[in-house]
Amino acid sequence: MDSAGGASSYFSSATDINDHKLLEAKLKEAMEAKGRFLSNMSHEIRTPLIGISGMVSFLQDTTLNEEQRDYTNTIQTSANSLITIINDILDLSKVDAGMMKLKLEWFHTRSLIEDVNELVSSMAIAKGLELSYLVEVDVPPWVKGDKVRIRQVLLNVIGNAIKFTSEGEVFSRCKVYHQQDPSPDEDHIMLEYSIIDTGQGFTEKEAELIFKSFSQIDGSSTRQHGGSGLGLVISKQLVELHGGNMAGTAVPGKGSTFIFTACFGLPTAEDHPDLPGSPTPYLVPIRTASLSGVSSHLQPLPPPKQASGIEATIVLRGDQDAPSPEVGSNGSSDLSMDSARSRLTGRSSTTSINTGLVHFSEAAKASGQDLSQMKLEIPSSNSSPARTVTADNPSQGLREDFRPPMYSILIICPQIYSREATTKHIEMTLPKDVPHQITGLGSAEEANELIGGEDPIKFTHIVINLGSAEAVVDLLGQVIKSQKIENTTILILSDSVQRQAVTKLAANTPFEQLRTKSLVTFIYKPVKPSRFAVIFDPDKMRDVSIDRNRSTAQKMVESQKASYLDIEKRMGNKGYRVLLVEDNPVNQKVLMKYLKKIGVDADVAIDGVECIQMVLTRPHRHYSLILCDLHMPRKDGYQACREIRQWEKQADFPSMPIIALSANVMSDVQDKCIAAGFSDYVTKSVDFIDLSRAMAKFF
Known about the structure:
seven-stranded mixed beta sheet; Sig_transdc_His_kin-like_C; Histidine kinase; 699 residues; Heat Shock Protein 90; phosphorelay sensor kinase activity
């Protein structure tokens, strides 16, 4: 009854939530089990990496030749990359929960792709694939983003392309992404990365599985390609955190194209890369693209136009820095100035050619040359200066003030994208004030038509990139027979295996004479501008001629040596003794080697029980420092540290330095170390620079 005496009613519902609570409890238990599993696996996987990266660090500190140093740098980078991959797997749950944060830093756009290509190059070489890349000229050299995450995306996508490609090539391109409605924000830019392969491709139905967790196109037990099925899932999430998107298209049996975009910061007057001696080149305004509205229907890049027969690019330019006029042609030309004949056919630009001849003439007159008596001179192997022959002494006469009037370069490479990348990389390293012609051919047969016969074309450089050593040697034989081969520099793009095979096959041929005269040079794959700079820009006048990855690796080695010297100065041969608490024999070997190197005596305990016995049965500070692993049998590092701190407290001893060493990278580990009483914390695999700095705090 209500207050007025009328009838009233109510509706109620009761739900049994016991099942719901039980499900929540099971879910919580499962998540805790997952966390423990990830923590343990992180430790188990990271621990062996100490043996790899640690010993490589010692190897880098020995006397190595250039090739050996390159190998050790690759091993070290690969180990670091593996650690990054492990971290990415652990971070997958963070991404799903929206807890992933990007670590923004300045990085060099070209060097990042080169670094990735170096890492996966062994996979490509083993399968006989061409691996190339191209960064368009309008892409800023430095941008700000999460370098580690973008690098991991590239590793995943390029690695997948190699995995699913059995023949042909894998090509990466980086360019500025232009939208129809560009953003007025001039402090950011959207870049587009395209990874193109000639692999097996996939169907529209298979495409639905690509970006699903733990899913693979071929999920059967007999699948040819391994993997967890997480790579592209993580990659897509990471580029979305960068305000971009990722999509993939393919034609079954012909290949696939994956395109992703990402937004990066541009240098400003207040925030820019800290590079000594070059504070301003990064402040050039660049038209930028909006961070929002990225199309999810990205289209694959069209292949470069393939001419029927010969492809030629003629770039004729003077001293100006403006873009050079280019002429596409179906032919080539003899560039000797004693001959007016030309084999240029198709759509050629007479104006551009005449412009080039004007610059040619100006260069010759400036050097005091007689045009009527002059032929195209051949650049020496170091590009500057050129050899000039005089009438008085035809075998001598270096003119320091004269550069070759024109470079004529022939590239033989059957792969379309690799040929395009090689052409662009050479153009980027050529002197700006010398006109040049680059002719690209797809086969050795086409090359023979130009360099063979009674009236061959003269080239300053011939670049050979063929799949087999036999094909290279056969083409070399044709080149050597040419009447105009004298002083032509031959560049052979190869890996170390092919180089050995070519050298062996051509051992008893005129090839050896050319090598003796330094007219044959092997350039290691994967190809990049800095490797062509050895020939065309030895003084590193062009920015692309600098191998920043090699420079960075060298700086890391120098920094490591400096850290050794600093900690040796502080602790070495001064009576200090360190107790290493570590159960893994490989880790013991690496860390004991490090301690010996810096001149410090050390003892080893294999677990927390031995650690307590060795510390408590000796006078306090018998050990000047303790390096203690966290995960050990019988008694772990946390418990050992707590017992030592309790002993010190009861005896009123000052705290001795105890540094935790752990391969567990879960977020709560450092807090646990602080609670247990550790003085500092260093993650595994141990970076000796970080360890040296941590130890130096106490001495």
